[in-house]
Every structure is written in C-alpha cells, then in structure tokens.
Specification:
274 residues, alpha+beta, Jelly Rolls, five-stranded antiparallel β-sheet, 12 helices, globular
Length: 274
C-alpha cells in the first residue's frame, strides 16, 4: 500500500458541512470537541485570527485548514462580501492521531497555489451554491477528497519541513516509514529499515532523526501506541491488540502504553469515554 493510503486506512477523515453562502460578522471557534475545521473562501475578503492572535488577511479565494481542535476566529464585514463553505473534519483515531499531529496548527493557502485540487474545488463550489438533491452528502465527500488531495500536494511539494509528513516526502525515508505503518507487528531493526532506504545503518539513523525528529525506534513505538489507542476506541480487547501492534503480551503493551501516555490502556479509554 502506498505511503498515504496506509495512513488514511487507519485515520480516515469524515467531513460534515455546516455553512455555505455569504458570511458576515465574527465567528469564534473555540477548539473544543474532537474535530478540526476546513474553511473555503470562494470570493470576497476574510480575516483569519489564530490562537496566538495573529491576523491573516485573505483577499482571494483561499483554503484554511485547522486539522485539530485549535481555537481560531473568522471575521468579515458586509463590505467584504465573503462567500464561504465550511465543514468540520473528524478523523478515525481521535483528534490527536499521527496524521493530524503531523500537520501544522493551521494551513492558509490561496487556491491558485493548489492546482491539483482545482477540479474537486470547482465541483465543491458548484454543489455548495447549487440546488441539486443530495447536496449535503456530496459536499461532505468532496471535503474529504479535498483533504486527501491536499495531503498529496503537501507531500509532493515537501511543504512541511519536519516530522512524519517530511519523512513521507523523502523518497528514501518514505520506504521505511511506510513499512512500519504497514507492518507494525514486525520486529523492525534499524538495519532492516536502513536496507529499505538503501542507506547505511548509521546514515539512516542520523537522517531519520534529523528529518522526522525522533529515532526510528521511538517512531515505531509511537505508531504502535497510536494504533492501539484507535483500536481501544473501537472496542477491541487488549489481548488481540497487543499481537496486532507488535507486542508479545498484553502486559508488555500496557507497560509501554503507560510509559508513553501516562496511564494504563483501561484508564486512558475511560478518560476518552467519560
């Protein structure tokens, strides 16, 4: 499976459109809940204020993606004549899954710089401002498609300098990352991963840490714990999960889980469901 598809298999996005049309006023989005937001400015002007109170003025059709529950604000006056289409974005595995954590707090980009998304964005705007039956369902699917195409664009353009997305944009490191993503249960050694990257063991380990920001072993552990968390949410028993993510026993997984997360699997799950 390719480097992006395996991520989406585990942490698939689900969109829910909640606004299409003219926008005027001030809307505060408080970063609560378990979902992020996507805002598409079709025409007019719009101001975007991030959680650090930085203000960005949008003066042409643009995309705003806030992939995690992060506080932000949208502002427009009547004279700005802003037309927006907005959706919430929820991901399998929760808000802080490896895919969303690999993205910046927000992405603001003019649509003219996203040429690979032109077809789906044209279709999305046509649906949003049309009257066809089934519009809401189509819009939701188009937002999901837009996000996938945006991720593809970010990888192709190497738009993110560090972390998992930077690793996936690196032709050599992408092979080792995809292998870990695809077979978390395998007892991967640095030598195995270096061979996949066609690098020496020492060069691979140093390059991986420089680009991704952690050692290969730490990355593999974090990936396994993320998969375990997702499967715990789905109601799978820890005895089954342990083998699926590369641990010899439930107790071995529980020890690593506590070390990484700060609580046992059952305690963590209770916190997420209360």
């Amino acid at each position: 499976m390719d480097r992006l598809s395996i991520l989406l298999k585990h942490f698939n996005p689900h969109a829910a459109t909640f606004h299409q049309g003219a926008f005027c006023g001030v809307t505060d989005i408080y970063g609560q809940g378990s979902f992020g937001h996507a805002h598409l400015l079709r025409s007019g002007r719009l101001s975007f204020r991030d959680k650090h109170n930085q203000l960005i003025e949008l003066v042409e059709p643009s995309l705003i993606l806030v992939a995690r529950p992060v506080q932000h604000q949208l502002i427009a006056t009547e004279a700005d004549a802003a037309e927006l289409v907005c959706a919430t974005m929820r991901f399998d595995g929760g808000a802080n899954n490896p895919l969303t954590l690999a993205l910046p707090d927000y992405i603001v980009q003019p649509l003219r710089e996203l040429s690979g998304l032109t077809g789906s964005l044209d279709w999305l705007f046509a649906e949003a401002f049309g009257e066809e039956c089934g519009r809401d369902v189509v819009l939701n699917r188009l937002f999901e498609l837009m996000l996938i195409q945006l991720l593809r664009h970010l990888i192709a353009k190497r738009s993110i300098a560090s972390g998992m997305m930077a690793g996936l944009a690196n032709p050599r490191l992408a092979r080792s990352l995809t292998a870990m993503h695809n077979e978390p249960q395998r007892n991967w050694s640095v030598a195995d991963l270096a061979t996949l990257a066609s690098m020496s063991r020492a060069s691979f380990a140093a390059h991986f840490h420089q680009v991704v920001g952690v050692t290969p072993a730490d990355y593999l552990t974090d990936w396994r714990i993320s998969l375990a968390q997702k499967r715990l949410r789905e109601g799978r028993p820890i005895a089954v999960i342990a083998g699926e993510v590369g641990y010899e026993s439930p107790s071995a997984l529980a020890r690593t889980f506590r070390r990484k997360v700060g609580s046992s699997p059952s305690e963590w799950l209770q916190q997420k469901t209360t």
